[in-house]
Amino acid sequence: MQNHTQGFTLIELMIVVAIIGIIAASAIPVYQGYVVKTQVNRAVSELGAYRSGFEVKLTSSSAISNQSLGYNPSSLTTGTAISEIGTLNADGSGHLQVTMGGNAHPILTGVILRFERTAEGEWSCVIDKSAASQWQASYKPANCTVI
Prior knowledge:
This protein is α+β, with helices and mostly antiparallel strands. It has one domain (about 10-145): Glycoprotein, Type 4 Pilin (2-Layer Sandwich). Helix content is about 35%, strand content about 15%. It has helices at about 10-50, 50-60, 65-70; strands at about 85-90, 95-100, 110-115, 125-130, 145. The chain has a five-stranded mixed β-sheet, covered by helices on one side. The model has no long low-confidence stretch (mean pLDDT about 90).
């Protein structure tokens, strides 16, 4: 009578676990990088949505406030309905600005996102990463300047 054993040996199982561990060790940092980049893009997009309200209030010579802009604080920022995000200068220039924090990835805490408006009405995206020591160039959204 032949004795056939079925199943995997302990060595085979250990090799499979080691391979899975190696794959996971390389995949987790890449995944976290995608999470950070997505959060930055989301926050920039949310802030950018208030530019049209800013322009409307500017052309109608109305005061610019969170309420007039329809500002709804993002879960990715430290902003509240009380802390004003918009600033308008006498020459027509100004900016919209928020600081990353809240539910954002810890790497992003303190990063300042700003849309700056020139007196001619041109908008530019500026990211101040000085508070984020682990900032990587891959986190930068398209059409934004990182300082």
